[in-house]
Design brief:
Strand content: 25-35%
Largest sheet: 7 strands, antiparallel
Low-confidence stretches: 1-65, 394-402
Order of helices and strands: HHEHEEEEEEHHEEEEEEEEEEEEEEEEH
Length: about 400
Protein backbone atom coordinates (compact mmCIF):
# COMPACT_ATOMS: atom_id res chain seq x y z
CA UNK A 1 0.00 0.00 0.00
CA UNK A 2 2.81 2.39 0.82
CA UNK A 3 4.54 1.64 -2.45
CA UNK A 4 1.37 2.34 -4.44
CA UNK A 5 0.85 5.65 -2.66
CA UNK A 6 4.37 6.77 -3.39
CA UNK A 7 3.95 5.94 -7.04
CA UNK A 8 0.76 8.03 -7.23
CA UNK A 9 2.43 11.07 -5.64
CA UNK A 10 5.49 10.83 -7.90
CA UNK A 11 3.25 10.49 -10.91
CA UNK A 12 1.36 13.62 -9.95
CA UNK A 13 4.56 15.59 -9.40
CA UNK A 14 5.88 14.47 -12.72
CA UNK A 15 2.80 15.55 -14.57
CA UNK A 16 2.64 19.05 -12.99
CA UNK A 17 6.32 19.81 -12.57
CA UNK A 18 9.02 20.78 -15.08
CA UNK A 19 12.75 20.51 -15.08
CA UNK A 20 14.85 23.64 -14.52
CA UNK A 21 15.87 23.67 -18.14
CA UNK A 22 12.32 23.34 -19.35
CA UNK A 23 11.23 26.13 -17.01
CA UNK A 24 13.83 28.56 -18.33
CA UNK A 25 12.96 27.70 -21.88
CA UNK A 26 9.29 28.25 -21.16
CA UNK A 27 10.00 31.58 -19.49
CA UNK A 28 12.06 32.76 -22.42
CA UNK A 29 9.29 31.75 -24.77
CA UNK A 30 6.71 33.49 -22.59
CA UNK A 31 8.75 36.69 -22.53
CA UNK A 32 9.06 36.64 -26.27
CA UNK A 33 5.39 36.00 -26.76
CA UNK A 34 4.53 38.75 -24.31
CA UNK A 35 6.60 41.21 -26.28
CA UNK A 36 4.97 40.24 -29.54
CA UNK A 37 1.52 40.47 -28.01
CA UNK A 38 2.27 43.90 -26.66
CA UNK A 39 3.55 44.90 -30.06
CA UNK A 40 0.47 43.49 -31.69
CA UNK A 41 -1.68 45.32 -29.18
CA UNK A 42 0.12 48.52 -30.14
CA UNK A 43 -0.61 47.94 -33.81
CA UNK A 44 -4.26 47.16 -33.02
CA UNK A 45 -4.63 50.48 -31.23
CA UNK A 46 -3.26 52.29 -34.26
CA UNK A 47 -5.68 50.44 -36.51
CA UNK A 48 -8.60 51.31 -34.21
CA UNK A 49 -7.66 54.94 -34.26
CA UNK A 50 -7.30 54.87 -38.00
CA UNK A 51 -10.51 52.99 -38.61
CA UNK A 52 -12.79 54.45 -35.95
CA UNK A 53 -11.44 57.79 -34.73
CA UNK A 54 -12.75 61.04 -36.23
CA UNK A 55 -10.43 63.88 -36.97
CA UNK A 56 -11.57 67.46 -36.39
CA UNK A 57 -14.34 68.47 -38.74
CA UNK A 58 -15.44 64.91 -39.52
CA UNK A 59 -18.50 63.12 -38.24
CA UNK A 60 -21.81 61.58 -39.10
CA UNK A 61 -24.53 63.64 -40.72
CA UNK A 62 -26.11 66.10 -38.25
CA UNK A 63 -23.32 65.61 -35.71
CA UNK A 64 -19.93 67.24 -35.79
CA UNK A 65 -17.19 66.97 -33.20
CA UNK A 66 -15.76 70.35 -34.26
CA UNK A 67 -18.88 72.37 -33.30
CA UNK A 68 -19.98 72.95 -36.89
CA UNK A 69 -23.70 72.88 -37.64
CA UNK A 70 -24.70 71.19 -40.88
CA UNK A 71 -27.69 72.40 -42.91
CA UNK A 72 -28.11 71.62 -46.59
CA UNK A 73 -29.32 74.10 -49.17
CA UNK A 74 -32.81 72.59 -49.38
CA UNK A 75 -33.34 72.96 -45.63
CA UNK A 76 -32.03 76.53 -45.68
CA UNK A 77 -34.48 77.47 -48.42
CA UNK A 78 -37.32 75.73 -46.60
CA UNK A 79 -36.76 77.75 -43.41
CA UNK A 80 -35.82 80.99 -45.15
CA UNK A 81 -32.23 81.09 -43.91
CA UNK A 82 -30.42 84.13 -45.32
CA UNK A 83 -26.97 85.55 -44.62
CA UNK A 84 -25.36 88.97 -44.82
CA UNK A 85 -21.68 89.90 -45.01
CA UNK A 86 -20.91 92.06 -41.99
CA UNK A 87 -18.73 95.08 -42.69
CA UNK A 88 -17.96 98.03 -40.38
CA UNK A 89 -20.21 100.99 -41.13
CA UNK A 90 -21.76 104.11 -39.62
CA UNK A 91 -23.91 103.65 -36.52
CA UNK A 92 -25.94 106.37 -34.83
CA UNK A 93 -26.02 107.05 -31.12
CA UNK A 94 -29.49 106.16 -29.90
CA UNK A 95 -31.77 107.35 -27.11
CA UNK A 96 -34.84 105.17 -26.54
CA UNK A 97 -38.02 107.00 -25.46
CA UNK A 98 -41.77 106.58 -25.76
CA UNK A 99 -44.24 108.70 -27.69
CA UNK A 100 -47.36 108.72 -29.82
CA UNK A 101 -48.42 108.83 -33.45
CA UNK A 102 -50.78 111.73 -34.14
CA UNK A 103 -52.89 112.84 -37.08
CA UNK A 104 -53.08 116.43 -38.23
CA UNK A 105 -56.41 118.00 -37.26
CA UNK A 106 -56.96 119.18 -40.84
CA UNK A 107 -56.58 115.61 -42.06
CA UNK A 108 -59.44 114.11 -40.02
CA UNK A 109 -63.20 113.83 -40.53
CA UNK A 110 -65.96 112.54 -38.27
CA UNK A 111 -68.95 110.44 -39.34
CA UNK A 112 -72.03 111.20 -37.20
CA UNK A 113 -75.46 109.71 -36.67
CA UNK A 114 -78.13 111.19 -38.90
CA UNK A 115 -81.05 110.02 -36.73
CA UNK A 116 -81.88 108.30 -33.47
CA UNK A 117 -81.91 104.53 -33.52
CA UNK A 118 -79.95 101.28 -33.40
CA UNK A 119 -76.59 101.28 -35.21
CA UNK A 120 -75.47 98.47 -37.51
CA UNK A 121 -71.92 98.82 -38.86
CA UNK A 122 -71.31 97.76 -42.45
CA UNK A 123 -69.45 94.47 -43.07
CA UNK A 124 -65.65 94.63 -42.63
CA UNK A 125 -65.78 98.07 -41.01
CA UNK A 126 -63.09 98.24 -38.34
CA UNK A 127 -60.17 100.42 -37.30
CA UNK A 128 -57.46 100.44 -39.94
CA UNK A 129 -59.92 99.89 -42.81
CA UNK A 130 -59.72 102.27 -45.75
CA UNK A 131 -62.98 103.93 -46.90
CA UNK A 132 -63.93 106.32 -49.69
CA UNK A 133 -65.67 109.65 -49.27
CA UNK A 134 -69.40 109.00 -49.07
CA UNK A 135 -68.82 105.27 -48.53
CA UNK A 136 -71.09 103.44 -46.12
CA UNK A 137 -69.90 103.02 -42.56
CA UNK A 138 -73.20 101.75 -41.22
CA UNK A 139 -76.94 102.29 -40.93
CA UNK A 140 -79.33 103.34 -38.18
CA UNK A 141 -82.79 101.91 -37.71
CA UNK A 142 -85.44 102.84 -35.17
CA UNK A 143 -87.84 100.02 -36.01
CA UNK A 144 -86.91 98.06 -32.91
CA UNK A 145 -86.54 101.02 -30.58
CA UNK A 146 -88.91 101.09 -27.62
CA UNK A 147 -91.74 103.51 -28.36
CA UNK A 148 -91.61 102.87 -32.10
CA UNK A 149 -89.85 104.41 -35.06
CA UNK A 150 -89.62 108.18 -34.46
CA UNK A 151 -89.91 108.78 -38.19
CA UNK A 152 -93.24 106.99 -38.21
CA UNK A 153 -94.27 109.11 -35.28
CA UNK A 154 -93.12 112.26 -37.10
CA UNK A 155 -95.26 111.35 -40.10
CA UNK A 156 -98.23 110.76 -37.82
CA UNK A 157 -97.67 114.17 -36.19
CA UNK A 158 -97.47 115.84 -39.60
CA UNK A 159 -100.65 114.13 -40.78
CA UNK A 160 -102.50 115.20 -37.63
CA UNK A 161 -101.27 118.77 -38.07
CA UNK A 162 -102.43 118.73 -41.67
CA UNK A 163 -105.90 117.54 -40.69
CA UNK A 164 -106.13 120.25 -38.05
CA UNK A 165 -105.03 122.91 -40.53
CA UNK A 166 -107.59 121.69 -43.08
CA UNK A 167 -110.33 121.84 -40.45
CA UNK A 168 -109.48 125.39 -39.37
CA UNK A 169 -109.03 126.90 -42.84
CA UNK A 170 -112.76 127.14 -43.80
CA UNK A 171 -113.62 128.29 -40.29
CA UNK A 172 -110.95 130.99 -40.57
CA UNK A 173 -112.31 132.01 -43.94
CA UNK A 174 -115.77 132.40 -42.38
CA UNK A 175 -114.37 134.40 -39.47
CA UNK A 176 -115.29 131.78 -36.93
CA UNK A 177 -111.61 131.04 -36.01
CA UNK A 178 -109.17 133.84 -35.28
CA UNK A 179 -106.17 134.48 -37.48
CA UNK A 180 -103.81 133.80 -34.55
CA UNK A 181 -105.30 130.34 -34.01
CA UNK A 182 -105.07 129.56 -37.70
CA UNK A 183 -101.44 130.74 -37.91
CA UNK A 184 -100.49 128.55 -34.95
CA UNK A 185 -101.99 125.52 -36.72
CA UNK A 186 -100.13 126.44 -39.93
CA UNK A 187 -96.83 126.73 -38.06
CA UNK A 188 -97.35 123.36 -36.37
CA UNK A 189 -97.94 121.71 -39.73
CA UNK A 190 -94.87 123.30 -41.35
CA UNK A 191 -92.62 122.19 -38.49
CA UNK A 192 -93.98 118.65 -38.61
CA UNK A 193 -93.54 118.50 -42.38
CA UNK A 194 -89.93 119.74 -42.09
CA UNK A 195 -89.15 117.04 -39.51
CA UNK A 196 -90.30 114.34 -41.89
CA UNK A 197 -88.40 115.75 -44.86
CA UNK A 198 -85.07 115.93 -43.02
CA UNK A 199 -85.10 112.20 -42.32
CA UNK A 200 -86.04 109.07 -44.21
CA UNK A 201 -88.50 106.55 -42.96
CA UNK A 202 -86.84 103.20 -42.05
CA UNK A 203 -83.00 103.07 -42.03
CA UNK A 204 -80.67 106.03 -42.31
CA UNK A 205 -77.13 105.58 -43.54
CA UNK A 206 -73.90 106.71 -41.89
CA UNK A 207 -71.37 107.81 -44.52
CA UNK A 208 -67.66 108.57 -44.44
CA UNK A 209 -66.97 112.31 -44.60
CA UNK A 210 -63.76 111.78 -46.59
CA UNK A 211 -61.47 109.19 -48.13
CA UNK A 212 -58.98 107.71 -45.70
CA UNK A 213 -58.54 105.17 -42.94
CA UNK A 214 -60.87 104.64 -39.98
CA UNK A 215 -58.72 105.41 -36.95
CA UNK A 216 -61.42 105.27 -34.26
CA UNK A 217 -64.80 103.58 -33.91
CA UNK A 218 -66.80 105.36 -31.23
CA UNK A 219 -69.95 103.22 -31.39
CA UNK A 220 -70.62 99.55 -32.13
CA UNK A 221 -73.28 97.43 -33.75
CA UNK A 222 -76.42 97.14 -31.62
CA UNK A 223 -75.80 100.38 -29.76
CA UNK A 224 -78.48 103.07 -29.55
CA UNK A 225 -77.27 106.38 -30.99
CA UNK A 226 -78.76 109.84 -31.27
CA UNK A 227 -78.66 112.43 -34.02
CA UNK A 228 -75.25 114.10 -34.15
CA UNK A 229 -73.47 111.43 -32.09
CA UNK A 230 -69.89 110.64 -33.28
CA UNK A 231 -69.70 107.21 -34.91
CA UNK A 232 -66.23 107.04 -36.47
CA UNK A 233 -63.10 109.13 -37.06
CA UNK A 234 -61.60 108.94 -40.54
CA UNK A 235 -58.10 110.18 -41.24
CA UNK A 236 -56.79 111.09 -44.66
CA UNK A 237 -53.77 109.26 -43.30
CA UNK A 238 -51.39 110.74 -45.84
CA UNK A 239 -49.25 112.69 -43.42
CA UNK A 240 -48.77 111.87 -39.75
CA UNK A 241 -46.85 113.31 -36.83
CA UNK A 242 -44.62 111.37 -34.44
CA UNK A 243 -44.31 112.96 -31.00
CA UNK A 244 -41.35 111.77 -28.94
CA UNK A 245 -41.51 112.47 -25.20
CA UNK A 246 -37.89 112.86 -24.06
CA UNK A 247 -37.20 112.64 -20.30
CA UNK A 248 -35.59 115.74 -18.85
CA UNK A 249 -32.43 113.78 -17.94
CA UNK A 250 -31.61 113.54 -21.67
CA UNK A 251 -31.77 117.28 -22.25
CA UNK A 252 -28.06 117.37 -23.14
CA UNK A 253 -28.63 115.06 -26.11
CA UNK A 254 -31.38 117.07 -27.77
CA UNK A 255 -29.21 119.33 -29.88
CA UNK A 256 -27.68 116.38 -31.73
CA UNK A 257 -30.90 114.55 -32.60
CA UNK A 258 -31.51 114.43 -36.35
CA UNK A 259 -33.82 111.49 -37.06
CA UNK A 260 -35.60 108.50 -35.51
CA UNK A 261 -36.77 104.93 -35.90
CA UNK A 262 -40.01 103.88 -34.23
CA UNK A 263 -42.15 100.82 -33.52
CA UNK A 264 -45.93 101.22 -33.15
CA UNK A 265 -47.24 99.48 -30.03
CA UNK A 266 -49.42 97.16 -32.11
CA UNK A 267 -46.59 95.96 -34.35
CA UNK A 268 -43.16 94.32 -34.24
CA UNK A 269 -42.03 96.23 -37.32
CA UNK A 270 -39.40 98.95 -36.89
CA UNK A 271 -39.97 101.92 -39.20
CA UNK A 272 -37.41 104.52 -40.26
CA UNK A 273 -38.61 108.14 -40.41
CA UNK A 274 -36.27 108.88 -43.32
CA UNK A 275 -37.54 105.90 -45.33
CA UNK A 276 -41.06 107.34 -44.89
CA UNK A 277 -39.97 110.70 -46.34
CA UNK A 278 -39.99 112.13 -42.83
CA UNK A 279 -38.03 114.78 -41.02
CA UNK A 280 -37.85 116.50 -37.65
CA UNK A 281 -40.18 119.51 -37.60
CA UNK A 282 -39.78 120.72 -34.01
CA UNK A 283 -37.16 120.36 -31.32
CA UNK A 284 -38.34 122.07 -28.15
CA UNK A 285 -34.79 122.29 -26.86
CA UNK A 286 -34.84 123.23 -23.21
CA UNK A 287 -38.62 123.64 -22.97
CA UNK A 288 -39.65 121.06 -20.38
CA UNK A 289 -43.33 120.32 -19.89
CA UNK A 290 -44.97 120.06 -16.49
CA UNK A 291 -44.75 116.26 -16.70
CA UNK A 292 -40.95 116.41 -16.91
CA UNK A 293 -40.75 115.52 -20.61
CA UNK A 294 -39.54 117.46 -23.62
CA UNK A 295 -41.61 116.90 -26.78
CA UNK A 296 -39.91 116.48 -30.16
CA UNK A 297 -42.00 116.21 -33.34
CA UNK A 298 -41.36 114.46 -36.64
CA UNK A 299 -43.59 114.44 -39.72
CA UNK A 300 -43.71 111.50 -42.13
CA UNK A 301 -45.75 110.02 -44.95
CA UNK A 302 -47.86 107.09 -43.87
CA UNK A 303 -47.27 103.84 -45.75
CA UNK A 304 -50.68 102.50 -44.72
CA UNK A 305 -49.28 100.43 -41.85
CA UNK A 306 -49.60 103.09 -39.15
CA UNK A 307 -52.79 104.23 -37.43
CA UNK A 308 -52.98 107.62 -35.72
CA UNK A 309 -53.48 107.49 -31.98
CA UNK A 310 -51.13 104.54 -31.44
CA UNK A 311 -48.37 104.71 -28.87
CA UNK A 312 -44.83 103.98 -30.05
CA UNK A 313 -41.35 103.05 -28.90
CA UNK A 314 -38.99 105.60 -30.44
CA UNK A 315 -35.25 105.38 -31.14
CA UNK A 316 -33.90 108.92 -31.41
CA UNK A 317 -30.75 109.06 -33.53
CA UNK A 318 -28.03 111.63 -32.94
CA UNK A 319 -24.23 111.56 -33.39
CA UNK A 320 -22.82 109.01 -35.85
CA UNK A 321 -19.89 106.68 -35.10
CA UNK A 322 -17.83 105.11 -37.86
CA UNK A 323 -16.43 101.59 -38.37
CA UNK A 324 -18.99 99.93 -36.12
CA UNK A 325 -19.82 96.23 -36.56
CA UNK A 326 -23.54 95.65 -36.22
CA UNK A 327 -26.09 92.96 -37.11
CA UNK A 328 -29.89 93.01 -37.58
CA UNK A 329 -31.84 92.26 -34.40
CA UNK A 330 -33.20 89.11 -36.07
CA UNK A 331 -29.68 87.68 -36.17
CA UNK A 332 -29.42 87.55 -32.37
CA UNK A 333 -30.33 84.33 -30.56
CA UNK A 334 -30.25 84.02 -26.78
CA UNK A 335 -28.90 80.68 -25.49
CA UNK A 336 -28.54 80.03 -21.77
CA UNK A 337 -28.26 83.74 -21.08
CA UNK A 338 -25.66 84.31 -23.82
CA UNK A 339 -26.26 86.40 -26.92
CA UNK A 340 -25.21 84.44 -30.02
CA UNK A 341 -25.07 84.72 -33.79
CA UNK A 342 -24.46 82.06 -36.43
CA UNK A 343 -21.89 82.56 -39.18
CA UNK A 344 -21.23 80.58 -42.36
CA UNK A 345 -18.30 78.20 -42.12
CA UNK A 346 -17.78 76.61 -45.49
CA UNK A 347 -20.47 75.13 -47.68
CA UNK A 348 -23.61 73.94 -45.83
CA UNK A 349 -22.07 74.60 -42.42
CA UNK A 350 -22.48 77.24 -39.72
CA UNK A 351 -20.67 77.99 -36.49
CA UNK A 352 -21.96 79.75 -33.38
CA UNK A 353 -20.36 82.91 -32.00
CA UNK A 354 -21.09 84.20 -28.51
CA UNK A 355 -21.11 87.97 -28.82
CA UNK A 356 -21.13 91.03 -26.58
CA UNK A 357 -23.69 93.61 -27.69
CA UNK A 358 -23.76 97.39 -27.45
CA UNK A 359 -26.35 99.96 -28.51
CA UNK A 360 -29.38 99.30 -30.69
CA UNK A 361 -31.20 101.64 -33.07
CA UNK A 362 -34.24 99.39 -33.10
CA UNK A 363 -33.22 97.70 -36.34
CA UNK A 364 -29.59 96.79 -35.78
CA UNK A 365 -27.48 96.00 -32.74
CA UNK A 366 -23.86 96.95 -32.21
CA UNK A 367 -21.49 93.99 -31.70
CA UNK A 368 -18.64 94.87 -29.34
CA UNK A 369 -16.86 91.51 -29.45
CA UNK A 370 -17.19 87.95 -30.71
CA UNK A 371 -17.59 88.72 -34.41
CA UNK A 372 -15.04 89.75 -37.01
CA UNK A 373 -15.57 92.06 -39.96
CA UNK A 374 -16.24 90.24 -43.22
CA UNK A 375 -18.02 87.26 -41.68
CA UNK A 376 -21.18 85.97 -43.35
CA UNK A 377 -23.84 86.04 -40.63
CA UNK A 378 -27.31 84.48 -40.61
CA UNK A 379 -29.72 87.44 -40.57
CA UNK A 380 -32.95 85.55 -41.27
CA UNK A 381 -33.83 82.09 -40.03
CA UNK A 382 -31.38 82.11 -37.12
CA UNK A 383 -33.85 80.14 -35.00
CA UNK A 384 -33.91 77.41 -37.65
CA UNK A 385 -30.11 77.11 -37.41
CA UNK A 386 -30.49 76.99 -33.64
CA UNK A 387 -32.91 74.08 -34.02
CA UNK A 388 -30.44 72.28 -36.29
CA UNK A 389 -27.74 72.78 -33.66
CA UNK A 390 -29.99 71.43 -30.91
CA UNK A 391 -30.88 68.41 -33.04
CA UNK A 392 -27.22 67.69 -33.69
CA UNK A 393 -26.14 67.91 -30.06
CA UNK A 394 -28.98 65.57 -29.11
CA UNK A 395 -27.28 62.69 -31.00
CA UNK A 396 -25.58 60.34 -28.47
CA UNK A 397 -21.77 60.35 -28.42
CA UNK A 398 -19.99 57.82 -30.63
CA UNK A 399 -18.87 54.60 -28.95
CA UNK A 400 -16.78 51.81 -30.39
CA UNK A 401 -17.69 48.57 -28.67
CA UNK A 402 -16.31 45.71 -30.71
Amino acid sequence: MLICSALVINSANFGCGKSHTETETANEHHDHDGHDHESEGHHHDEEDEHDHGHSDGEGHEGHDHSGLIEMNEHTMQRFGVQTEKINPSEFAEVTVVSGRIEAKASDEGVATATRNGILTLSPNINTGVRVNAGGSIGSISASNVQGGDPIVQAVAVRNAAKRELDRLKPLHDDGIVSTEEYNNALKAYEEADAAVKTSKQGSASVSSPKSGVITQLLAKTGEYVEIGQRIAVVSGNTSLTLRADVPEKYIGRLSGITSANFRPASSDQILDIEELNGKMISNAGSSVSESGYIPIYFSFSNNGAVAPGAFAEIYLKSGVRHDVISVPKEAIVEINGNKCVYASHGEDHFIKHIVTLGASDGKRVEVLSGLDAGEEVVVKGAQAVRMAETSATAVPGHTHNH
